[in-house]
Design brief:
It comes from Cuscuta epithymum. By secondary structure, this protein is an alpha/beta fold. Helix content is 23%, strand content 31%.
């Protein structure tokens, strides 16, 4: 979903990158309209500072996605071709797709019409909490409550301590990461009645404690995750909690802001987001029986992060843990300084010892069994200063780049069975 502010640039990004491997027909951009802005508590319309005859406008919020999907006809098209679920993902959270297969399984097993993905959350952490709200008349719903509303709500509902950690060390209310899995059939039925309208709210940012003047104009907006509020009490709404290392590493802070984050709190930067991918893959391989060295700590753009072996694979190699277990056998080990890139559907790791860089690229009908000791100088991580404008921006915001000193790069472009040894 785009708006006037982002539509043309989004389209340009997709076209200039060949839709990142997708067919253009697979991508549908839905543009939301803007709404009028308000400049004060009395809801006076905010005028454009450059033209007093125009009213300021801003996007209506990501809750518009429901009405746009309905009015565009996309939901019916998806339903007619046999699709059953709709996944809503937002934020630049690359780890999300590691958690989706299991979460989708939960939706199917529990017959959830709406399934919110969540992660363990510390009390008063600045992330919305998944709650079960019960009315005095007994009606109840499972819904996200924003973090700045959760503690006051609890205190006003008979919990004098508000939002506190329980015996697990976390809040009883898991953190909402704004990823939804919705069953398509009931979704269409509901939107046929509501048109996808979501309850609106106003969230002004005030200049000071007097709360009389706004920092900037505000507007009516709506949130995607408030969709369950429109559902009847009989609707099956639930949530799935995943460990943070597997499901949540958003990239939303620039290097300067990330460097100011207090020690022990997540940076949520391009640096930490990429390192989180390597950590997740390393931990998954560990759980599959691979000996993966512990990480070291390094500082990039003022952020002290764990640096695990740089392990990545294409989704076709493994979508689930059972996929990985079926493709890893014997005694395998990967050193901390290593880089492993797997690009192929049928690549088997058997008794492999890696201390360096190894890239395996195989045709879908090529079965490659890799084993033995692979040692080379590998890829060296070099620090980059985000202020160094001689370096491309996408590298500067990471704070590092790879110096590909030495690697073993093997490609298999034909069908057949192959062995890869040192």
């Amino acid at each position: 979903m785009t708006s006037d502010d982002t539509h043309s640039r989004t389209l340009q990004l997709l076209e200039s990158n060949a839709y990142f491997g997708m067919k253009p027909t697979q991508v549908k951009l839905l543009k939301q309209e803007k709404v009028a802005c308000l400049e004060d508590n009395d809801a006076h319309l905010a005028l454009d500072p450059h033209n007093k005859y125009e009213i300021q406008t801003k996007p209506h919020g990501h809750g518009d996605v429901h009405s746009l999907l309905f009015t565009s006809g996309l939901l019916k098209l998806w339903h007619d071709v046999g699709l059953r679920w709709v996944l809503f993902f937002q934020d630049t959270n690359g780890l999300l797709f590691k958690a989706i297969p299991a979460s989708l399984g939960v939706s199917a097993k529990k017959q959830y019409q709406v399934n919110s993905l969540a992660v363990p959350r510390k009390a008063k952490e600045a992330i919305g909490g998944i709650t079960r709200l019960t009315h005095k008349d007994g009606r109840a719903m499972v819904i996200n409550v924003e973090y700045n509303q959760l503690d006051p709500l609890l205190r006003a509902s008979g919990y004098p301590d508000g939002d506190v950690n329980c015996e697990t060390g976390y809040s009883p209310f898991p953190g909402n990461i704004n990823q939804l899995i919705i069953e398509l059939g009931p979704y269409i039925e509901e939107l046929t009645q509501t048109g996808g309208a979501i309850k609106e709210f106003v969230n002004p940012k005030y200049k000071d404690a007097t709360k009389t003047a706004f920092k900037s104009s505000t507007r009516l907006e709506c949130m995607m995750q408030d969709y369950p509020k429109t559902l009847p009490p009989s609707a099956r709404v639930g949530f799935t909690v995943m460990d943070v290392w597997l499901a949540y590493a958003p990239v939303k802070n620039n290097p300067e802001d990330a460097a100011k984050v207090p020690e022990g709190n997540p940076f949520h930067s391009a640096t930490s987001g990429e390192m989180a991918i390597y950590r997740a893959h390393s931990l998954i391989l560990r759980k599959a029986g691979v000996k993966v060295d512990d990480p070291v700590h390094q500082v990039f753009n003022g952020q002290r992060v764990e640096v695990w072996p740089r392990v990545v694979w294409k989704p076709k190699w493994a979508l689930t843990f059972s996929d990985i277990k079926s493709k890893v056998s014997g005694n395998n080990s990967i050193s901390q300084r290593s880089t492993l890139v797997i690009k192929g559907k049928n690549i088997i790791l058997e008794d492999i010892s890696l201390d360096g860089a190894l890239i395996i690229d195989a045709h879908d009908n090529a079965k490659v069994k890799a084993g033995g000791s692979f040692d080379n100088k590998g890829w060296v991580i070099e620090t980059v200063d985000y202020k160094d404008t001689s370096v491309p921006e996408e590298v500067r915001i990471r704070g590092f780049r790879f110096n590909k000193v030495e690697q073993l790069d093997k490609s298999y472009s034909e069908a057949g069975e192959f062995s890869l040894n040192p």
